[in-house]
Structures are given as structure tokens and as C-alpha cells.
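Re: the request from the purification team.
They wanted to know what the chain is likely to look like in 3D before they choose a buffer screen. I agreed to run a prediction and write the result into the notebook, where they can find it.
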Amino acid sequence: MQVPVHGADGASFVLFVRPAAERLRMMARRVLALLWRCVLAALLGLAFAAPMQTASAADEAPLRFGILPLGGAFESRNDWEPLLADLSRAIGRPVSVLSVNSYEALEQAIQRDQVDMAFLSGKMALDTVTQRRMSVVAQVTRHDGLPGYRALLLTRKTGPRTTLKGLLAEPERWRLARGESRSVSGFIVPQLQLFLPNHIAMETRFASEVVGTHQATALAVANGEADVATNNTADFERFKLQFPAEAERLQVIWESELIPHAQIVVRREYGPEFQKKVQAFLVEYARGKGPRGDAERAVLKSLHDLAGFVAADNSSLLPAAKLAYQLARQSAMSAQWVNEAARQARLQRIENGYAEQTAALRGNGP
């Protein structure tokens, strides 16, 4: 209850006087708090006295597997979960899936050390390795036996804008659907092998652009939201199975040279013994006979129609490094500079960076 009090200087105050029952409740809460502090101190003492138990618990934490966004995030998660369940049983440790909608989201997760293993291609795999965060343990293979895949340009079969000649003659009249700037087949290779040699910068010359996954870019053209889309042979084959009606509206007007297949990378904090264990699982996966081998081959077929994995190391990224180098050099040659000295300085930095990168990938770097 409230009791008014008047001070000697004329000021007025209000005292809050609690009834006896409330005072007893407060005393009981203080006693309980004191007991809890004692229990907490004892628990902390036990924690510091048993470091081996803490380390064991850390070893049981899920291995976090990041997936390059090829289709939708939900679809990619469903595709990878059967293989990762088999991996979990092989290494005796739970494996969780991180499936995202963009290259940027996956890159940020890797930078924050929220990914322990990942399925990456080209530029992203190159960045994770050269930034000393991860190492390559395996590379995927496909049933066609080719050492890579090709970037594509897709247009509708009918309409005013359907030919490569028309695209190169008037790019500013075309609406572009492309991959993110880190996508090898969705941006880097088309820019390097087709557009820059024809004095066209993908980011600035088109009437508009949609940026998304290969599935999203193909749908954009099929549904009339864009005129031309970047894509690749592997993902377009998958698109034909998932969206046959939309695929029937599309045609290929350009193909790139072969692009090396994607890699599996593992954080370097996991030592050589663990990396070898993961590598052995991947290399042996789907190569056995009988029902188990058949089941594993069915998993890989649903997983972007993979044939399996081969052992690989960081040197498998040398082709990706060369592509990145060629794109950087081509961009520098095409750009506007205040003077020739500035251009040459930029070109020299590109040469030096490429030399350091290739040395590191071959195991000769710092």
C-alpha cells in the first residue's frame, strides 16, 4: 500500500509498504535465488573439471553441408538429403543441410564459418580454397563421360527476338535473365566467351535483367518475362524433365566451351584423416553391386543426374582460376581508363594475382 511522507524541507514522497505476506514471499524468493547460485557454481566447477566431455560433445555436432543453389532451396534440400544420410552413417556423425536461394547467401554462410562442407563450382569453390578456408576432396562426374558441361543461351522458338545474330546486333532491345555474378555458366563464361568479345557488357547493355537460378531464368523466357536466358546443359536437361511444357517453347542459340564440373570442399579445420574418410565415401559411392549399389545410383540420378565422384585436390580448380583470370583481363581491356598507365597497372595486378593463385592451387603457395 502507499503511505504519503513529508520531508523536513517540505518535499513530499510516497512510500510503498508491503504487507507481511508479501514480505514472506520475497524472503522465500531470495532463499531460492541463493540456492540456485550455489547449484550453478557447482555445475560450472564440474564443467571446468571435465574438458574431455566437452570436446566429445563438440565432435557430435552436425556436419553442416552447404548446397550451391541450382534449383529451388526446398528442392535442392530434398535431392541431397538421401546422400547426406548415407554420409552421416559412414562417418558416424550427423549431417545437416544448408540450402539457400542465392550464391551470396551461401558465400556469407561460408564466411561466417556456418558451413563445414559444400557442393560448389567454379568461382565460389575457387574463392573458398584460395581464401584458405576449405580444400577440395572430390569432383562430380556425369553419365555423358565429358569432363565438364557447357553454358547455354536460351530464347523462345517464336517471337521477334529469337536469333543470336539479332541479340548481338541490338542487345539493348533484349530483356536478359542471367545468373548471379559468381555463377560460372550463368554469368562468367557467357560474359567471357561471347559478350565481351562482341563489346557487350551484360550488366549494362540490355533493356532489363532478371537475376536468379538456372530454373528461374529458363522459366522467365518460357513465360515471356525475358527474351534470352543464360543456362547450362546439365540444368537445362533437368528443366526439360521438370517443366516439359515450358521447355518445349525454348531453343538453344549458343553453347560455350566445356566448363569443369563442380567440386566437394571441406573446411581445413577438419584434418587430413577426416578429409580422406569423406573422400573415400564419395569415391566409392554408387560403385558397388547389388541392391545397395542400385539404391545409391538412384540417389545420384535424382541428384542432378550425377554418375559419381572422383578424388580431387585443389589443383582441380586451375581451369576455374584461368576463367576468372581471363574474365578479369578481358574486362580490364574493355573498360574506360583515365590513361594507359592506369590500364597497364590494373593488368599487372591481374597477372600477379593469377600467378599467386595458381601457385597456391598447385600447393606451392604461401
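For the purification team: The chain is about 50% helix and 20% strand.
Please add any questions underneath this entry.
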